[in-house]
Write a structure and sequence with these properties.
The chain is mainly α and 160 residues long. It is built from 7 helices and no strands.
Length: 160
């Protein structure tokens, strides 16, 4: 797991070249640790490099950013969405979505939900559903996959 965390940390830093300070490196490692732990807790596991690509696309790793429609945090979670409420209720949590771990946990659960709903083999659809809320291929998936292919060790391996 340490090697995976180190690789995910390096991926985060490659997307954010302005993060050069020691504190920024520590923050990247903290985010990487949380991403790896939460993504690997899913069955089947979610690729942590894909989660990093989504976070970069959604918020550029700004934990407290708010979107124009009320989305919150790293993974731009809709706080009042039915799926968000169900995830938090299932885990008996009442967490702030600006909390890094809570935001990533809920985002990974959202991604896992859509992966199951749309079909594991239909990555374009479940990535788009993460953003749009339905299994329909959109430009969003192509944009996320561009970052994903850039940071994933060994490239995409057939993912286009």
């Amino acid at each position: 797991m340490e090697n995976l965390i180190a690789a995910v940390t390096a991926a985060i830093l490659s997307l954010l070249p302005h993060w050069k300070s020691e504190g920024a490196n520590a923050r990247a490692e903290e985010y990487a640790t949380i991403v790896v732990e939460e993504s690997q807790a899913m069955q089947p596991p979610i690729d942590p490099f894909l989660v990093v690509a989504i976070i970069f696309k959604e918020s550029s790793f700004r934990a407290k950013v708010k979107g124009g429609r009320g989305e919150i945090g790293l993974m731009q979670i809709m706080p009042r969405g039915a799926l968000t409420r169900a995830i938090l209720k299932e885990r008996d949590e009442d967490l702030s979505l600006v909390d890094v771990r809570a935001n990533i946990r809920v985002g990974v659960h959202h991604l896992h939900y859509w992966q199951n709903e749309c079909g594991v083999e239909k990555m374009d659809q479940w990535l788009s559903a993460y953003n749009l809320g339905r299994c329909k291929k959109t430009k969003y998936a192509r944009r996320v996959k561009r970052f994903y292919c850039k940071i994933k060790p060994g490239g995409c391996g057939g993912v286009s």
